[in-house]
Amino acid sequence: MKRITTLLLAGILAMSTLVSCGGDGGSSTAEDSKTSSADTTSTESSVEAAKVDGVNLEGFPIVDETLTVSLMGPKAAIHGEWKDLIFFQEMEKKTNIAFDFDTPAAEILEEKKNLALNGGTYPEVMFACNISRDQQVKYGSQGILLPLEDLIDQYCPNIQQMFEETPGLRGSVTTPDGHIYALPQQMTLPIALTGTIWINKEWTDALGIADEDLPTDTDGFKEMLTRFRDEDPNGNGEADEIPFVIFDDANKGDSLYSIMFPWFGLLSAEFYADDAGQVHFGMIDENAKPAMEYIHDLYAEKLIDNDCFVTGSAEATAKGSEGRVGAGSHALPRFVFGNMSIEEEATYPGIGALSSPVNPERTTTRSSGVTQGTFALTDKCSEETAIAMMRWVDYLYSEEGTIFIHYGPEGYIWEHPDGNPDLYRWIPQDDGRNTEEVRGGEITPDCGAGCPKWFKDEYYNMDDVQEQARKYWCETNCWPYAKQPLPEMYFTAEEQAELDMLATDLTKYRQENASKFITGDKSFDEWDSFVEGFKTMGVEDMIAIYQQAYDRWAEANGK
């Protein structure tokens, strides 16, 4: 593993001293004077060459005098005030760039962002604002968002390196008009890109199910859930077990589809591309009916929590805390089964990719690792501000900068164990808060918002038994079988307008009707008419638009 560099947060000042050699009495000869003058001119020229519009092109600070820049970003519920976060305070010390913050609550960011962009009240910098691909096309074409590609090529070596080392990434953030209007976050960490179903270790032990015997196909998964339901694994003598819990209160079935559709060869309930580059709409593919019948059977036999469509995360975790849950999908076992020691949590196994009778290949999905629209500049920037901010953000794509924005400086929530620079571990908090609460409340906006950075797999070297277990189960049962539904691709303004006209009604139709097949409110005798309904609503036209966009992406990336 690469060494995780200890962060240096003080400004780095380059000092140079000119020495003139005098003769007797301190006077200099004409030749000495000429040499001194030449040295001074050369030094001044070098200093001038290292600056553009008052911006230092190497090292820190980025500007000599404090530059204050207006910035919009979302304040998540877990965040402290952005002006008080250690990340921004230390970056100001390092760079001499300060911010005038506009931080609407995350839940109203989209509304505030659109009001600002449409009303002309937007700031110079949009940070972690989730500027979507269609927004990049729209506001870039209007001249509100500045093209960044020339600034990247001139002033951003770390971003250039990221593009060089990540095939297809530059094309995935380049709009159809050839410009880059917003920078991404790029992650290559498998545990951040795939989901895991955690299994109750106490229950598998009680039933004699060894870790190596965990299911690898849909029949085995159903069999395990059935044993959870029928064989009293919690040992209380009551039939109160919930074999599989999922919280889907806001998603109308989408959480179930995202987990289970891939087992049937469908990478999404909506649009995805197969291995040959052919775009599909999952809910009308031929394997959709057997996938939905399988989910319905689990629901009807109470192998899935029948409250799943009205259950939120807190309610699901509460059921796990009562010792009633056998399996569930979340970031960590503690969020499924309730609080436990990390040593105990590390024993809980995880699965993700299963095969099925219609899909003999174990399959799950993965994200691209790209978070779109994490940083953009607007036309309110002066040339000096644009160059300075590109140097500022480029630092976040270095190893040191990525670790800094992601975790903060050493000593707050992490440390090198026993002084070993190749490892790091969490520092327990004395006040009862967990590391995420401290991370988002005091240190960085990167906890709760998608910020610009380049987080490589080799940066993640946690000396923590639970984190190592999480990594193991992901790399064993998820990552080798994970496929990305679609690449990061753009639509033209005309394509986006047609999609916008059709998408809302089509998604509403899918969500409201598909869930009825799961609950039994619709018979599968109605399946064919359900599929025809999508075609009547223009799904085939939407598939054609997605195919055009995919083909452009494939051509641009040599696929």
Structure notes:
- This protein is an alpha/beta fold and 559 residues long.
- The chain folds into 2 domains: 67-189 and 369-459, Periplasmic binding protein-like II (D-Maltodextrin-Binding Protein, domain 2, 3-Layer(aba) Sandwich), CATH 3.40.190; 197-365 and 484-556, D-Maltodextrin-Binding Protein, domain 2 (3-Layer(aba) Sandwich), CATH 3.40.190.10.
- It contains 22 helices and 19 strands.
- A 6-stranded mixed β-sheet has the order 4-3-5-15-6-18. Strands 8-11-7-12 form a 4-stranded mixed β-sheet.
- The radius of gyration is 28 Å and the shape is globular.
- 42% of the residues are buried.
- The model is unreliable at 1-49 (pLDDT under 50).
Which helices and strands appear, and what pairs or packs with what?
Layout: H1 30-49, E1 51-52, E2 55-56, E3 67-72, H2 86-95, E4 97-102, H3 109-119, E5 125-127, H4 133-141, H5 149-155, H6 157-165, H7 169-172, E6 183-187, H8 190-193, E7 197-199, H9 201-207, H10 218-230, E8 242-245, H11 254-260, E9 271-273, E10 279-281, H12 288-300, H13 313-321, E11 325-329, H14 334-337, H15 342-345, E12 350-351, E13 354-356, E14 359-365, E15 370-377, H16 383-395, H17 399-407, E16 414-415, E17 425-426, H18 435-443, E18 454-455, H19 465-477, E19 482-483, H20 493-519, H21 527-536, H22 539-556
Parallel strand pairs: 3-4, 3-5, 6-18, 8-11, 14-19
Antiparallel strand pairs: 1-2, 5-15, 6-15, 7-11, 7-12, 9-10, 13-14, 16-17
Helix pairs in contact: 12-20
